[in-house]
Design goal:
Radius of gyration: 30 Å
Largest sheet: none
Number of helices: 5
Helix content: 55-70%
Structural class: mainly alpha
Shape: extended
Oligomer: single chain
């Protein structure tokens, strides 16, 4: 009987730690990040920045005097939350009632929409005469928000009375002449 000992070969010098060697980066490793960057930036500007701004505004004492220039409103800390959560006061009770109505409305609308959508989806699985017409009718609500968005942007970008023209020339004072009345 013979005993053999196998020695594991490693590319490390004697006494070196057993760390794995890092693989070299492939060419174009940055491309996925570059393609995602615009979406991440737009997500920040469209959702995260307004949300953080709203949270910051909740710590300010906004009145009619400061609503148009909320950056100069005095800081009150958690006092707004203290007022909102005091359910013995009229403000707290009104906010609680408003929250209850909003929650009930949300549950009701989501429940009805989900139920009708599932029923329509199951009903349209079977082949029958006129199925294409019904599928088209069910897709109209998906197209309407896009149409409404196009109309809204058309109004905002009007040359004579658009909101963007008003912002750029009247509020920011960019050189040129404002065409809004």
């Amino acid at each position: 009987m013979s005993a053999s000992t196998a020695v594991k070969k490693s590319g490390h010098a004697a006494g070196a730690t057993g760390r794995k060697a890092r693989k070299p980066r492939r060419a174009g490793w940055w491309l996925p990040y570059a393609l995602l960057a615009p979406a991440v930036i737009f997500e920040l500007f469209i959702h995260v920045v307004p949300m953080v701004t709203g949270i910051w505004m909740s710590f300010l004492k906004l009145t009619k005097m400061f609503i148009s220039n909320w950056g100069n409103a005095p800081f009150v800390g958690l006092k707004n939350y203290q007022v909102a959560l005091d359910f013995d006061s009229a403000v707290g009770l009104g906010l609680l009632k408003s929250f209850g109505i909003t929650a009930a409305f949300t549950i009701l609308v989501v429940g009805i929409s989900w139920s009708l959508g599932m029923a329509a989806g199951v009903a349209l699985q079977k082949t029958f005469r006129g199925r294409a017409i019904f599928r088209t009718l069910f897709l109209i609500p998906y197209a309407l928000p896009m149409y409404a968005g196009v109309i809204a942007w058309k109004f905002m970008l009007q040359k004579d009375s658009g909101a963007l023209n008003h912002l750029l020339f009247d509020n920011l004072g960019l050189p040129g002449t404002s065409r809004s009345g």
